[in-house]
Design a protein that fits this description.
Distance between the termini of chain A: 26 Å
Oligomer: heterodimer
Number of helices of chain B: 2
CATH superfamily of chain A: Dynein light chain 2a, cytoplasmic
InterPro entries (chain B): DYNLRB1/2 (IPR016561), Roadblock/LAMTOR2_dom (IPR004942)
Low-confidence stretches of chain B: none
Radius of gyration of chain B: 14 Å
CATH class of chain A: Alpha Beta
CATH class of chain B: Alpha Beta
Protein name (chain B): Dynein light chain roadblock
Largest sheet of chain B: 5 strands, antiparallel
CATH superfamily of chain B: Dynein light chain 2a, cytoplasmic
Number of strands of chain A: 5
Subcellular location (chain B): Cytoplasm, Cytoskeleton
CATH architecture of chain B: 2-Layer Sandwich
Low-confidence stretches of chain A: none
Helix content of chain B: 25-40%
Keywords (chain B): Cytoplasm, Cytoskeleton, Dynein, Microtubule, Motor protein, Transport
Main location (chain B): cytoplasm
């Protein structure tokens, strides 16, 4: 993990410690991936599941959602994405350098 | 039954934060909308692709799972998408601060 991304991640984590703890109590796990290359950075799941989430959710669906939002209004941009499924819910938060997904 | 639907739509439309409600048929054609037509068609096109992609993604991550709703929180709106077999409902909200 490059130092820039590690530092950026630490900063965001510190700022949102309270929220993070509140969510992580209910969450099944999390996945963090890097935006530019879509590589897996950090996860609490096993590698296969995490890679699957990064590949399907971060790399393809999140990009589609972001471009759709900008398509409708060029000045708008996606802040947060929630995909609710029958079994659980994906909370996807794209940041500047990385993307965090919590699985609830 | 149609009168019921109209009533429900009107009730939700009158909430202060709701900017618009669109109901699409399975081919992404708006059958009911409270927003102006150009914007509706624009939303229909974007949301239809998104909902289809999401459904495929969810079933590829876990074959027994299925998609229930999608919430897109952008800087200025929140878009709630509820896909179903015979329709797609889109609600655009202005989140109050």
């Amino acid at each position: 993990m490059s130092k820039i991304y590690l530092k950026a991640m630490e900063e965001v984590v510190q700022r949102n410690m309270e929220n993070t703890n509140r969510i992580m109590e209910q969450a099944q796990g999390y996945v963090v991936s890097e935006n530019v290359t879509d590589t897996l950075l950090h996860t609490s799941f096993d590698l296969t599941t995490a890679q699957g989430i990064v590949k399907h959710m971060h790399a393809s669906f999140l990009r589609l959602a972001q471009s759709g939002v900008r398509d409708i209004d060029p000045e708008d941009s996606l802040c947060f994405l929630r995909v609710r499924t029958r079994k659980f819910e994906f909370l996807v938060a794209p940041e500047q350098y990385f993307t965090v997904t919590a699985v609830l | 039954m149609s009168a019921e639907i109209e009533e429900i739509l009107k009730r939700y439309q009158s909430y202060p934060n709701v900017a618009g409600i669109i109901i699409l048929d399975p081919f992404a054609i708006p059958i009911k909308t409270t927003m102006d037509y150009t914007l509706t068609v624009h939303y229909a096109a974007v949301v239809h692709t998104l909902a289809a992609k999401a459904a495929k993604m969810v079933s590829s991550l876990d074959a027994n799972n299925e998609l229930m709703t999608i919430r897109l929180r952008t800087k200025q709106h929140e878009v709630v998408i509820v896909p179903s077999e015979s329709y797609i409902i889109i609600v655009v909200q202005k989140p109050g601060e």
